[in-house]
Write a structure and sequence with these properties.
Blueprint: H1 3-20, H2 25-47, E1 56-57, E2 65-66, E3 69-70, E4 74-77, E5 82-86, E6 92-96, E7 100-111, E8 117-128, E9 135-140, H3 145-168
Antiparallel strand pairs: 1-2, 3-4, 4-5, 5-6, 7-8, 8-9
Helix pairs in contact: 1-2
């Protein structure tokens, strides 16, 4: 949950509690700000995306993939030419780069009331040379679209460039 809503909710709750206990409104409002600020700060620290840990990436019936590059739903082993994907349904699979026929980065442009433009709902769609799994969609949701949608866009664009460079040379 973002910092500002947590701050406001905590401030309202603590102010209300102090008013019920008989403190004047001004004193309650001022005293409630400190615990509200602490609660909002702790929540912000807890909800920040954690760095990715080096680990083997697994898929059913495939040997583990040791990633050269990794993201939340995508990992690449450049030495063996294999790609680990987790699609929108949570299914995990490992494919050879030779099985990738095409890939496309899609997103939605949006702007708020102040004119700030964001690129949200980022995903990479892979078309594979497999009859059983012809298309795989990988989401980029590491950051909140409401506040950091452009970071998801940058991460997806980096992955698209990385795969393009590796496959097309």
């Amino acid at each position: 949950m973002p910092f500002i809503p947590v701050l406001v909710v905590a401030w309202v709750l603590v102010t209300g509690l102090l008013l019920v206990l008989g403190a004047p409104f001004t004193v309650s409002a001022i005293l409630a700000f400190v615990p509200a600020l602490m609660t909002g700060g702790l929540t912000r620290l807890r909800w920040r995306p954690q760095p990715l840990v080096a680990r083997p990436f697994l898929a059913k019936g495939e040997p583990p993939l040791n990633a050269t590059y990794a993201s939340d739903n995508l990992a690449l082993d450049a030495t063996s030419g294999r790609l680990w994907l987790r699609d929108v349904t949570g299914r995990r699979l490992i494919v050879d780069l030779a099985d990738v026929a095409a890939w496309e980065h899609t997103w939605t442009d949006t702007s708020n009331a102040w004119g700030h433009r964001s690129r949200i709902r980022n995903e990479l769609a892979f078309r594979l040379r497999r009859l059983d799994i012809p298309t795989v969609r990988v989401l980029f949701r590491r950051y909140s679209d409401a506040f950091n949608g452009n970071k998801n866009f940058e991460e997806a664009a980096t992955w698209q460039a990385r795969i393009t460079t590796l496959i097309n040379g």
